[in-house]
Amino acid sequence: MSRSIVATPAAPAAPASFGRAVKTAGLALVPGPAPIDPATGQAVKGSVQAQVAQCIRNISVILETADSSFEKAVRATLIFADDDDFAGAHEEWMRWFPRNPPARQGAKMPARIPDMKMSIALIAGA
């Protein structure tokens, strides 16, 4: 099975200890880019809704680079620093996926990262 690394300067670079997105077996696997604004290199400040929107914009660019899109998304994991942010994240998520969203689950961040309320991992057809 072939596999290729998916990277684009239009999305924030993954930290060295984290894997980049991978395209393999007809899938694009995006490992949870942070809510970082690629123009500034800093996490978006403010609400969890703003961070969800930034994560989605980052994933969109990665999917485009992998010849995929959100229309082909099959599974997403929303990873939270604080359980109390679920409602706000859900509210923003539904703005992006009002119909036919991918299967979704939630998870807890294993460590606190300054200014980071959440990230999103996603799998899509490619």
- Ranges where pLDDT stays below 50 over 5 or more residues in a row are none
Most strands sheet: 6 strands, mixed
Number of structural domains: 1
Please give the CATH class: Alpha Beta
Q: What's the architecture in CATH terms?
A: 2-Layer Sandwich
Widest β-sheet, arrangement of strands: 1-2-3-8-6-7
Q: Give the mean pLDDT.
A: 90
Total helical elements: 2
Instruction: Specify the structural class.
Output: alpha+beta
> What is the CATH superfamily classification?
RutC-like
Task: Tell me what portion of residues adopts beta-strand conformation.
Answer: 25-35%
The name of the CATH topology is 60s Ribosomal Protein L30, Chain: A
What radius of gyration results from the CA coordinates?
14 Å
Got a strand count?
8
Given the C-alpha coordinates, what overall shape results? globular
| Alpha-carbon distance between the two ends | 14 Å
Order of helices and strands: EEEEEHEHEE
Offer a concise description of the structure:
By secondary structure, this protein is an alpha+beta fold. The chain is 23% helix and 30% strand. The strands form two sheets. A six-stranded mixed beta sheet has the order 1-2-3-8-6-7, covered by helices on one side. A two-stranded antiparallel ribbon has the order 4-5.
